[in-house]
Design brief:
Blueprint: E1 3-7, E2 13-16, H1 22-28, E3 46-51, E4 54-55, H2 66-70, E5 73-75, E6 80-81, E7 85-88, E8 101-114, E9 117-123, E10 137-141, E11 147-151, E12 162-167, H3 173-180, E13 187-194, E14 207-212, H4 216-228, E15 235-241, H5 252-258, E16 263-269, E17 281-282, H6 285-292, E18 300-305, H7 307-319, E19 327-331, H8 336-346
Parallel strand pairs: 1-7, 14-15, 14-18, 15-16, 16-17, 18-19
Antiparallel strand pairs: 1-2, 3-5, 3-7, 4-6, 8-9, 8-13, 9-12, 10-11, 10-13
This protein binds flavin-adenine dinucleotide (FAD).
């Protein structure tokens, strides 16, 4: 029997089909609720169940800790209702105007910009256009229904091309192919735009941005969008890499700073080589944020990169006074099929 979900404090209500997740049903109904990894890992889709009951028949709700479960928090990307539900969740209205679609994009340029990062430029066919909001990502569609997520690294105002920064993951099938073999001229089938990691333009608060590795990609798009808007909101960009060799597009921040009255960039090296520590801050990038701003209560924070950074940053920033609803992030998680395989392997079940 289908259930219905009501968004607390609003008139919004939508039906959920048998076996469907709350997030899938919300999307079908045209409601844009926050999400990122779609695998139950990153916690972007966390909401509170005010009334009713749900369960997790697909993937376990790994991003919920005991306190959050006791508080009746749920992960909407995995939660399947067992009854009618009332949930407390925040909509991201701006993304609702950008419906996702499938499109063929052609690789028009590729450049190795760091030992394990390749910058790829893609173009839609003549007369077609992908529309997106700064910070969103796309899925590359692969055989057997597999998909791999990559953030769009350029602001939408910049023309019709799409820029991606792709890190070669050790043992990773798709990224290894892109890094070593993919020719210019290859055609990728993609779906996008996806995700809700987008600028909140209704805020006037100063912004802290925190990037780990290729987590720089969506933040680059968001910075360029703010530059396009001629925003004067203070922008503090903290960019974490292991050492200088990973610092691709290194001249860009200085170019940004010339176009913005209050934009500051700090590079933070976690494994500095030689005399690199004399030129940059060192340590973990989220710790550098706290060194600069021990009280984060006045800020909005945008953060993207590997799951370990997101997890550490989330806890540390909220403990330093950042209101939880002022933290926006994209966590570069395993693709859902990979996560499912890992969980099956852990449980000792064959593929
Ligand atoms: C919203 C979002 C945005 C992202 N944006 C970016 C971006 O802009 N740039 C970027 O570089 N990355 C980004 N990522 C991460 C990117 O999607 C992954 O790096 C990519 O999916 C890896 O694909 P792959 O096919 O190369 O690796 P996969 O083949 O998916 O393998 C990934 C890893 O899992 C391991 N693995 C695979 N199967 C198993 C198993 N059964 N058991 C144990 N381990 C296993 C592999 O050895 C490897 O280490 C993003 C992720 C998300 C969710």
């Amino acid at each position: 029997m289908p259930f219905s979900v009501t968004l607390a404090g609003t008139e919004r209500r939508f039906p959920v089909d048998d076996g469907e997740t709350v997030l899938e049903a919300a999307r079908r109904a045209g409601l844009a609720l926050p999400y990122s990894c779609l695998g139950g890992r990153c916690g972007s889709c966390k909401a509170t169940i005010v009334d009713g009951e749900c369960h997790y028949p697909r993937q376990p709700a790994l991003a919920l800790d005991a306190a959050e479960r006791a508080h009746h928090d749920a992960l909407l990307c995995q939660a399947v209702p067992r009854s009618d539900l009332t949930i407390a969740a925040r909509e991201v209205p701006s993304v609702a105007d950008f419906p996702r679609r499938q499109l063929a994009l052609k690789v028009v340029a590729r450049e190795i910009v760091a030992p394990d990062v390749v910058r790829v430029l893609l173009k839609p066919p003549r007369g077609e256009r992908l529309r997106w909001l700064a910070g969103q990502y796309l899925d590359v569609l692969l055989p057997e229904g597999k998909r791999r997520a990559f953030s769009i690294a350029n602001a939408p105002e910049e023309g019709d091309h799409v820029e991606l920064h792709i890190r070669q993951v050790p043992g990773g099938g798709f990224t290894h192919w892109v890094f070593t073999e993919m020719p210019v001229g290859a055609v990728w089938r993609i779906e996008g735009p996806l995700g809700t990691f987008v600028p909140r333009e209704d805020s006037e608060r100063p912004i802290v941005m925190v990037a780990g590795g290729t987590g720089f990609a969506p933040l680059k798009a968001i910075v360029e969008h703010f530059l396009h808007l001629r925003s004067a909101r203070p922008l503090h960009v903290f960019r974490g890499v292991r050492d200088e060799s990973e610092l691709y597009l290194a001249d860009l921040p200085a170019q940004w700073a010339r176009r913005h009255p209050a934009l500051f960039v700090e590079t933070v090296l976690s494994e500095p080589k030689g005399d690199e520590a004399a030129r940059h801050a060192t340590g973990f990038v989220h710790e550098a944020v706290l060194r600069n701003f021990p009280d984060l209560s006045p800020f909005d924070i945008y953060m993207s990169g590997p799951p370990a950074l997101i997890e550490a940053g989330r806890r540390a920033f909220v403990a330093a006074g950042l209101p939880a609803d002022r933290l926006y992030y994209d966590s570069f998680e395993y693709a859902p099929d990979v996560l499912a395989a890992i969980l099956r392997a852990r449980a000792g079940i064959g593929a």
